[in-house]
């Protein structure tokens, strides 16, 4: 079996820096199945998986070419994280995890998957209602942190907390209140 020229992360990075198209092509093939699985498992379609992966690779490529990439993990982990954030952002833009039925039908071939998907949709619906009941500033704080992926320093400044520890403590309290609201309504279907 022929060994790949790009067996290590460093070799892939170096290939991209040298403008070797084979490095980028290899990267596209290497981690797409992982990203595709994640997106298909979270209310996405095959085309959306391809779009998100393309966007993730472009972010990665531009950071390498601009010498702004600070990689403290494997490329696989980095791309997963970028694509996950992009997908969560897209879901939020679609209307808080809502999915159109025709989008989901294309990748739910068996009844068990449909039941699982319907249960997830029910959970997302209850979570949305719980967030609405939560009120401000908790709702905005949790959305900023979990959906908009803002760091604690930004949240500290935005909400006027004295320091990031205070903001973390408030986030924890808000999350506990959200869990209480969610589980007051949600009962798993048996």
UniProtKB/TrEMBL annotation:
Any one GO MF annotation of this record: sigma factor activity
Residue stretches making up the RNA polymerase sigma-70 region domain: 27-96
Gene Ontology biological-process annotations: DNA-templated transcription initiation
Record flagged with keyword Transcription regulation: yes
Pfam families: Sigma70_r2 (PF04542)
Highest taxon, organism lineage: Bacteria
Keywords from the UniProt entry: DNA-binding, Sigma factor, Transcription, Transcription regulation
PANTHER family: RNA POLYMERASE ECF-TYPE SIGMA FACTO, RNA POLYMERASE SIGMA FACTOR HI_1459-RELATED
Stated name of the protein: Sigma-70 family RNA polymerase sigma factor
Biological classification of the source: Bacteria, Pseudomonadati, Bacteroidota, Cytophagia, Cytophagales
